[in-house]
From TrEMBL:
Protein name (record): SGNH hydrolase-type esterase domain-containing protein
InterPro entries according to UniProt: SGNH_hydro_sf
Gene3D superfamilies in the cross-refs: SGNH hydrolase (3.40.50.1110)
SUPFAM superfamilies, A to Z: SGNH hydrolase (SSF52266)
Length: 85
């Protein structure tokens, strides 16, 4: 069964630990490359605006995506899925 792993998204709440999130995503991405059934997807560019998380895409907790955030990441994720299957 194929597994699609969506990388840790940069969020306003956790922006101060973005380097750790990038490091974690790098580790998972490398692991996924070694596996035959895991594919890593990076959607971070779709929630950034001028290099920082776009606050309008997050709920009031500044951690979780709101409806606009999901609308922002759905097209690239859908395109990715359709291209691998």
């Amino acid at each position: 069964m194929p597994i699609i792993y969506i990388g840790i998204l940069p969020t306003p709440l956790r922006w101060h630990v973005r380097d750790e999130a990038v490091d974690s995503n790098t580790i998972v991405s490398r692991f996924a490359e070694e596996q035959g059934t895991v594919t890593y997807v990076d959607l971070s560019e779709w929630v950034l605006n001028n290099g920082s998380p776009d606050r309008s895409l997050f709920r009031s907790d500044l951690q979780h995506l709101n409806a606009a955030g999901y609308e922002a990441i759905t097209p690239p994720l859908k395109s990715f899925i359709l291209n691998i299957f």
